[in-house]
Design brief:
Blueprint (H helix, E strand, L loop, with lengths): L6 H4 L10 E3 L2 E9 L5 E6 L5 E5 L3 E5 L6 E6 L11 E6 L8 E10 L2 E11 L4 E12 L9 E3 L4 E6 L17 E6 L15 E4 L4 E7 L2 E6 L6 E6 L17 H10 L6 E3 L7 E7 L10 E6 L4 E7 L6 E9 L5 E6 L5 E5 L15 E6 L2 E3 L10 E4 L6 E6 L3 E10 L4 E10 L5 E4 L8 E9 L2 E9 L1
Parallel strand pairs: 26-33
Antiparallel strand pairs: 1-2, 2-25, 3-4, 4-5, 5-6, 7-8, 8-9, 9-10, 11-12, 12-13, 13-14, 15-16, 16-17, 17-18, 19-20, 20-21, 21-22, 23-24, 24-25, 27-28, 28-31, 29-30, 29-32, 32-33
């Protein structure tokens, strides 16, 4: 998941959309963060408070979310681009401050013999270097390559791999196509994978292209053929039915297959009569859009929508859905949510299937009507003090000015809440003390968020 400026300041930025949009009791405007991109595939929030981005032709960059300034970090020379091929998913090591590794997946080879590769790069503070291949020679194609990445708290790397147009491979557990893979960070097979000696974690997939884990639940979005895109909960060793089952088990043939093979049905199928081309997926639990808390946000290519999927309290079912964006920006490839709750989306209008405008492709921010104050900017609080920072386990938090009935959260850079305290009355001389539980906090970068009234202020925390 993914210093705020007030809505008034955002209105002055270039690319601001003056009209307000109301969805699920939330009002927001939009602004262009970066323009003239070339098919951004992955956007994610980095611990440096920048958006890290892959573009399909092989470029990896970091984007300043305030100014849109772009810094190129690496160009992959052997990437094969065309049709759905190219540089795709990316993930940063969860302990990036001490282990500055970046993992990416891309296609290489030739159109007639496309292959998929996963590599690890090292960030030296200004650029990426030292590529190491973790996995290669995965069969690929001009369609259905996947490929999204995620690293969980156990430091296992998950990768979605499509069926590469060969639907029969999805049910073959000897093949790694049509699968969600799980590996150690060096590319080796974990000893507790469900199929001994195999990277396969789940099977029966067509073309999964979204992946996010929340509270130990791994969610994935997956393209259907001409109907029934899916949102699934990925479970160890389970079968998701493709190519016999598409969407829910709701035809006689599907029902029989599901009962015989213990198929996992999606928590949401979109839809029985058409396809939306489900792409990027992320989880929202922030405070800038409070009515969207505990929801999945799904970008779609063909339908050109940003879909809000409200989750049940246990996160295991979808209770409602709504289109937050519907066609205004063309094809939507991915979504990025900052730890503070800001929402960014990326377009995919230059992928050969869209109708690009002059400024495409773009990264766009949804600007909430909740005020967010950047430290040292205008607002009732001038700054937030955290001492010591960096720290080993103890810290004190105090605002420059009095706040009443405030709340403090400490979140990791994926947006997971690690600490929370409420009903606080604080000022510069009355601080809040925290002792960080080492079982819940590892060395790395976190964010301290102070909420008061209709405002937020945040500051970065480094834990040694």
């Amino acid at each position: 998941m993914k210093t705020y400026k007030s809505l008034l300041i955002a209105c002055l930025l270039v690319g601001f959309c003056a009209c307000e949009t109301n969805h699920a009791q939330e009002t927001f405007t939009t602004r262009n963060v970066a323009t003239n991109l070339n098919t951004p595939w992955e956007i994610l929030w980095g611990p440096d408070d920048h958006i890290w981005m892959t573009e399909r032709y092989g470029r990896i960059s970091r984007v300043n979310p305030e100014s849109g300034a772009l810094q190129v970090l690496y160009n992959i020379d052997d990437v094969l681009q065309g049709s759905e091929r190219g540089l795709m998913g990316m993930v940063l090591h969860p302990n990036f401050a001490t282990e500055p590794y970046v993992y990416v997946v891309y296609t290489y080879g030739a159109n007639s013999s496309t292959r998929i590769k996963i590599i690890r790069l090292t960030y030296n503070g200004t650029a990426l270097e030292s590529p190491i291949t973790l996995l290669e020679n995965i069969p690929g194609a001009g369609i259905h390559d996947g490929a999204r990445l995620w690293i969980d708290e156990d430091l296992k790397l998950f990768a979605t791999i499509g069926d590469a147009g060969n639907s029969s491979s999805a049910q073959n557990t000897e093949s790694i196509n049509g699968k969600v893979l799980r590996m150690n960070l060096d590319g080796s097979v974990p000893s507790d994978n469900p199929f001994p000696g195999s990277l396969v974690w789940s099977f029966g997939h067509r073309n999964p292209q979204g992946l996010v884990m929340v509270n130990g639940i791994l969610y994935s979005s997956e393209h259907g053929p001409s109907t029934d895109d899916e949102v699934n909960i990925i479970e160890k060793g389970r079968n998701y039915g493709w190519p016999t089952v598409n969407g829910y088990c709701d035809t006689p043939q599907e029902i029989a297959f599901c009962e015989a093979n213990n198929i996992v049905e999606p928590i949401k199928s979109l839809y029985p009569t058409f396809t939306v081309a489900a792409a990027g997926l992320d989880y929202y639990n922030g405070d800038l859009f409070p009515n969207w808390k505990n929801s999945l946000l799904l970008t779609t290519l063909k339908a050109q929508k940003l879909v809000l999927l409200k989750l049940s309290p246990d996160g295991k079912s979808v209770t409602s859905e709504e289109n937050v964006i519907d066609g205004q920006f063309g094809r939507l490839r991915d979504i990025c949510i900052s730890p503070n709750g800001r929402i960014f989306i990326s377009t995919s209008n230059r992928d050969g299937r869209g109708s690009p405008k002059a400024e495409d492709d773009r990264i766009i921010e949804l600007v909430s009507n909740v005020q967010s104050i950047k430290p040292n900017s205008s607002g009732s609080i001038r700054w937030l003090r955290i001492f010591p920072n960096p720290t080993s386990n103890e810290l004190r938090i105090s605002p420059s000015d009095l706040v009443v009935d405030a709340e403090i959260e400490i979140v990791d850079f994926l947006g997971n809440v690690r600490y929370k305290a409420s009903n606080l009355n604080l000022d510069l001389n009355h601080s809040h003390s925290v002792v960080l539980d080492k079982e819940n906090f590892v060395s790395g970068i976190y964010y301290v968020i102070l909420k008061y009234g209709n405002k937020l202020i945040s500051e970065k925390l480094i834990l040694n």
